[in-house]
Specification:
Elements lengths: L11 H4 L8 E5 L6 H6 L1 H4 L4 E5 L3 H9 L4 E2 L16 H4 L10 H22 L3 E5 L4 H13 L3 E6 L6 E4 L8 H7 L9 H16 L16 H12 L27 E5 L6 H6 L7 H15 L4 E5 L6 H6 L3 H4 L3 E4 L4 H7 L2 E4 L3 H8 L4 E3 L12 E2 L6 H9 L5 H15 L10 H18 L5
Helix pairs in contact: 6-7, 12-17
């Protein structure tokens, strides 16, 4: 269970006897895909909540302003100080660690972000915070500032079933409260026929590849032409932008496999720079080539007749894909696919090996054995084979291939995740029920923050 980041503390004003409930909720550095949805959400929280926004991303600022919302700071580009205290780097945490190639600039960037957020918190009299994921530089500094002030923080992220979100006071993924609850064996959801039927329907839809219906927005919010132009001009300065596209099919990769082996292990690659790998992958770090090497060796040692099928992540960057070009030649017995639907690979596999990908949870939903080399809320004994060192991989994979699954334990876990942990809403669904579910969970979590003494 997570121990390396403290939980968000409640608002001192909200927790004081007879004090007013939090009234100002700040949304911090939303992603461009989530911004249109959360631009509409404030209408669902009024009149009890006043929502304000902070973003340094021009495209996000443009979307929010089209929705008629004010956005802080006044300018997207922050002025970096000449010098800053290196101790500020501890405030950044999370994904900011990637930027350590230039520590001096990173420290000054953190100082600039912290100064802008401090002014924002003071001017708007913030009572609570909502951050997306929480691992980005701005989000992690904002959460640290909120904790320093004793304010509650809500963390949002995509859910682990189609049409769902995570919204939690402790974090997302491995940082989520679900990790602690699952580890303590307290994960159980509603035990009634309606809840069981809803879970069965959700699992059947997922296995069949059916997504829940969603409603598009009444108006489409898009970044302005100037904001989009600015983003493209910024990309022109990035070295990766000028790298040519890699034709992986010419190197032994397949867009999709026409015929899958009779028995195979499915290994989904994750994005090499993902914060999930940077923070929660103690065995292989962010090195997918090393992961493949370990899994290939373990499979050859335990079940040489079982094939290995690898799917590359569709969001991987060009320079990383270029480094993968030699993999088919190095591992001629491995099948590589670029675009095979994950659900197809899950249906037919004998087991799944992952670090901490969403695919690991999806494999549980499909009733497949899972071996996990990293940390996530689902990586608990009894649910998956947990591997914390390389030499434990082969025996864990052998157990998984024997199909040893505690079906009752998994059912209890899925009942909890579906019935209590996940929010049945999506930032791609602008229907009334989606907004009501998101607003309801935000209200519920902030109300519970008032009942906890710092």
């Amino acid at each position: 269970m997570p121990t390396d980041r403290p939980s968000a503390a409640p608002s001192a004003r909200a927790a004081s006897a007879g004090g007013p409930a939090p009234r100002t909720l700040a949304f911090i550095e939303l992603g461009i895909r989530a911004a249109p949805y959360f631009a509409e959400l404030p209408a669902q929280l009024r009149p009890d909540w006043r929502c304000v926004h902070f973003s340094t991303r021009p495209v996000v600022r443009s979307v929010l302003r089209q929705a008629g919302l004010a956005v802080a700071p006044a300018r997207a580009r922050l002025t970096l100080p000449e010098r800053a205290d290196p101790a500020l780097l501890a405030e950044a945490g999370g994904k900011a660690r990637q930027l350590a190639r230039d520590p001096g600039r990173l420290v000054r960037r953190v100082a600039a972000v912290q100064a802008a957020l401090t002014a924002f918190f003071d001017a708007e009299r913030i009572d609570a915070l909502f951050v997306w994921n929480g691992s980005g530089l701005v989000a992690s500094v904002a959460a640290a500032e909120a904790r320093r002030r004793g304010l509650p923080v809500l963390f949002g992220e995509n859910g682990y079933l189609p049409g769902t979100l995570q919204i939690d006071r402790e974090g997302v993924n491995w940082y989520a409260s679900a990790t602690r609850i699952v580890a303590e064996g307290r994960d159980d959801g509603p035990d009634d026929p309606a809840a069981e039927a809803a879970l069965d329907a959700a699992l059947a839809d997922y296995v069949a590849g059916r997504r829940p219906p969603s409603r598009p927005p009444a108006r489409r919010l898009r970044p302005s032409a100037w904001a989009r132009l600015g983003r493209e001009l910024a990309r022109l300065g990035e070295f990766a932008y000028w790298r040519p596209a890699v034709n992986l099919e010419a190197h032994g990769f397949h867009a999709r496999l026409d015929k899958l082996p009779a028995r195979y292990v499915f290994l989904p690659f994750q994005v090499a720079g993902d914060s999930q790998l940077l923070l929660h992958s103690p065995v292989v770090g962010a090195d997918m080539s090393k992961l493949l090497e370990l899994v290939h060796a373990a499979l050859r040692a335990t079940a040489p007749d079982v094939r290995l099928v690898v799917k590359l992540h569709p969001a991987e960057r060009r320079h990383v894909l270029k480094a993968y070009r030699e993999l088919p030649a190095r591992y001629p017995d491995v099948l590589f696919t670029l675009a095979q639907p994950t659900i197809e690979l899950l249906r037919g596999c004998a087991a799944v090996v992952t670090v901490n990908s969403t695919v690991g949870f999806e494999a549980i939903a499909c009733g497949k054995p899972v071996v996990a080399l990293g940390r996530n809320f689902y990586t608990a004994p009894g649910l998956v084979e947990c591997v914390s060192q390389a030499d434990a991989l082969a025996p864990a994979l052998a157990r998984a291939l024997r199909g040893e699954i505690d079906a009752a334990r998994r059912r209890r876990f899925l009942r909890y995740i579906h019935g209590r942990f996940l929010v049945h809403a999506s930032y791609q669904d602008f229907g009334a029920s989606s907004f009501a579910a998101t607003a309801g969970r935000i209200r519920e979590l902030l109300a519970s923050a008032q009942d906890v003494t710092p």
